[in-house]
Every structure is written in structure tokens, then in C-alpha cells.
């Protein structure tokens, strides 16, 4: 299967850059679609240099060259948000446009597969603008001729990801944490390494073509649970006080004030946590059997990567896993 030619969109992002290394490790020929003006900075050398093509998904005329000769495409393009709340709202229409442009270009190019990482949540649950947009992108891609696999994930825990960085900065900096209502909503977080295993597994498992799968880790937890877990594995004493009446927008500005995560990213994440995000089905576990990483270990893996740099093996010197606690 490694002879397949794979187009990777979003190769500079949190998931995309990691996926590039995974695909390279498995021997795939990867072409990275990069926007003009962006640079693909690689922290570690690859076995083979990826082909880089510059294109703009808002410009349909730039896409045929990017897709020419490709077998499968990973669609990792979505707008978590902008620097500001106003930018976040504007990105919904942009996501819709680029998804349509990509679907039409993929149909014309005759791709065999598209694999898309979307968001977990049911349409009947009054979804946030962000999650509703992720679902709409999935529908747009699956409406084309190319068989599109959709993976739906909730909170993804890994170094550099918005969810983990919010938790890390809040817990490291504040001995007393104020918990608005959204931090107590239950979800099924998943380690970034498990997301990558599923993304690669879909490429190598033809039975996943054209289907939608929920993906999640082995535990159902809230953001408050994750913050408490982070404190424990770091050996920190922290208190979380619930403040359920604080509006979501105000809490987003508060998180932005404490962390480097832009308010335009915090707000859609917080709004998305109005609803429980738990896997309704687990059929992917039979098709792609992997070991699901417990969140304690996922947090330690992320801490080790923050300390030592991407790609380094786990060092638990900075972590106290539950079994090690007195």
C-alpha cells in the first residue's frame, strides 16, 4: 500500500505535521499542499523529502496541479478560529467554500479516497457554530464522487494542541482555577498518537472508505477532570471552584488572558463543550484495533514533548503517574 501517492492538506498544523512524519515512516510518497507565504518547518529529518506544492483552497484554479496524480488526500483544513471572535464567525463561510472547491477538484482529478478529521457531536444537540461547520464540511466532502472517510473526534490531547495548551497554562499558573459550566461537560478525549494511528489505519483499511466513525479514548472525562489529572501527574496542588453562571464569551476572554491561546480559538472550543461529545459507536475499534492511550499517559507524553521537542521518546521525569503517587 505504501506505493500510494498521498496529498496532505494542512501539513503545518497540529495534526498535519505529525501525520507527515507517520506517513513518511510508513513509506508513503507525500505531497504537501501549502499556502503561498507559509513555510513547512520540519523539526526532525524525514526519510524522504516530501513534494511541496503551493495552492490556495479559495482559488479553484490552483488545485488541479496539487491533486494531479494523487491517490488519496487527507483533508485537515478547518478553522478552529481566528485571533478574534469576529474572525471566528467569518471562517464558517470560508470553510464551506474551500470544502466545495476541494470536493469538485478531487472529483475532476479522480481521487480514490479522501480522509477527513472532523468534530464529535450530534446534529440534534444544538451544536456550536464551530462543530456545525465541521459537520457541514463532512457532508460537503461526502456528497462528491470520491469515497470520503470521516473521523469524528472530541478533545485531542497532545503538545501544541489548543486543548492541552489551555489546560497546561491554566494549571501551571493558577493555584485556584475558576471553572465555568463548560469545563464540567463530559467528553471522550483522545491522545494525538491514537488519532494519528486511526488516520493512517484508514488509509490502509479499504473497509473504512466512505464511512463515518467516532473516535475517542478509553475514558469519559470533563475539562475539569483533565485539569485535575494534569495537576496530579505534575505533583501540583490545585483547587477548582465552579462558577457556572459566567458567560462563555467572558470565560473565553479570561482563558485568553491567562494563556497564549487566542480568544478566537478558545471561544469555539468552549462553545463546543456545551454538549457532551461521547462516541455513539465504536466500530472503528474492530477495523483498526489499537491500544487506546489513557489520559494520564497522554498528558505525560505531551509534557515530555513540550520539554524535549517533537519526536523524542517519552521521559516521565516530569510526571507522576497515578501508580507513583504517595
List the helices and strands and how they pair.
Layout: E1 5-9, H1 14-25, E2 29-34, E3 51-54, H2 63-67, E4 72-75, H3 85-109, E5 113-119, H4 129-142, E6 147-153, E7 156-157, H5 162-173, E8 176-179, E9 190-191, H6 192-204, E10 212-215, H7 223-233, E11 239-242, H8 248-258, H9 263-272, H10 284-287, H11 295-308
Parallel strand pairs: 1-2, 1-4, 2-3, 4-5, 5-6, 6-10, 7-9, 8-11
Question: What features would you highlight for this structure?
Answer:
326 residues, protein-containing complex binding, globular, NAD-dependent epimerase/dehydratase, NAD(P)-bd_dom, Rossmann fold, ComplexI_NDUFA9_subunit, NAD(P)-bd_dom_sf
Please write the string of helix (H) and strand (E) elements. EHEEHEHEHEEHEEHEHEHHHH
The general outline is: globular
CATH superfamily of the domain at 5-154 and 190-215: NAD(P)-binding Rossmann-like Domain
Q: What fraction strand? A: 15-25%
Number of helices: 11
| Portion of residues within helices | 40-55%
Global Rg: 19 Å
Low-confidence stretches: 310-326
Query: By helix and strand content, what is the structural category?
Result: alpha/beta
User: What is the CATH C level class of the domain at 5-154 and 190-215, in words?
Assistant: Alpha Beta
The tally of strands reads: 11
Mean pLDDT: 86
Separation of the first and last Cα atoms: 48 Å
Cross-sheet strand order for the largest sheet: 3-2-1-4-5-6-10
CATH topology of the domain at 5-154 and 190-215: Rossmann fold
CATH architecture of the domain at 5-154 and 190-215: 3-Layer(aba) Sandwich
Largest sheet: 7 strands, parallel
Amino acid at each position: 500500500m505504501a506505493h500510494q501517492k498521498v496529498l496532505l492538506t494542512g501539513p503545518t498544523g497540529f495534526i498535519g505535521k505529525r501525520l507527515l512524519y507517520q506517513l513518511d515512516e510508513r513509506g508513503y510518497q507525500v505531497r504537501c499542499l501549502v499556502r503561498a507565504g507559509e513555510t513547512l518547518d520540519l523539526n526532525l529529518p524525514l526519510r524522504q523529502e516530501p513534494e511541496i506544492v503551493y495552492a490556495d483552497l479559495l482559488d479553484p484554479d490552483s488545485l488541479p496541479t496539487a491533486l494531479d496524480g494523487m491517490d488519496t488526500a487527507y483533508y485537515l483544513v478547518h478553522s478552529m478560529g481566528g485571533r478574534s471572535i469576529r474572525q471566528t464567525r467569518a471562517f464558517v463561510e470560508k470553510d464551506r467554500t474551500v470544502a466545495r472547491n476541494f470536493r469538485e477538484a478531487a472529483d475532476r482529478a479522480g481521487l480514490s479516497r479522501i480522509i477527513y478529521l472532523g468534530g464529535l457531536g450530534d446534529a440534534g444537540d444544538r451544536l456550536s457554530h464551530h462543530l456545525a461547520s465541521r459537520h457541514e464540511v463532512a457532508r460537503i466532502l461526502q456528497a462528491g464522487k470520491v469515497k470520503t472517510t470521516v473521523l469524528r473526534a472530541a478533545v485531542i490531547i497532545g503538545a501544541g494542541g489548543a486543548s492541552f495548551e489551555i489546560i497546561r497554562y491554566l494549571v501551571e499558573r493558577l493555584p485556584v482555577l475558576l471553572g465555568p459550566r463548560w469545563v464540567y461537560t463530559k467528553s471522550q478525549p483522545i491522545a494525538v498518537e491514537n488519532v494519528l494511528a486511526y488516520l493512517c489505519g484508514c488509509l490502509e483499511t479499504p473497509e473504512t472508505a466512505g464511512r463515518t466513525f467516532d473516535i475517542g479514548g478509553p475514558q469519559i472525562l470533563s475539562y475539569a477532570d483533565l485539569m485535575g489529572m494534569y495537576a496530579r501527574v505534575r505533583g501540583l496542588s490545585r483547587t477548582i471552584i465552579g462558577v457556572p453562571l459566567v458567560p462563555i464569551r467572558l470565560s473565553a476572554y479570561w482563558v485568553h488572558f491567562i494563556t497564549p491561546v487566542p480568544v478566537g480559538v478558545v471561544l469555539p472550543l468552549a462553545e463546543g463543550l456545551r454538549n457532551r461529545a461521547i462516541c455513539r459507536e465504536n466500530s472503528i475499534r474492530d477495523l483498526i484495533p489499537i491500544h487506546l492511550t489513557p489520559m494520564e499517559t497522554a498528558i505525560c507524553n505531551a509534557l515530555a514533548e513540550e520539554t524535549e521537542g517533537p519526536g523524542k521518546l517519552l521521559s516521565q521525569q516530569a510526571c507522576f503517574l497515578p501508580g507513583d503517587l504517595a
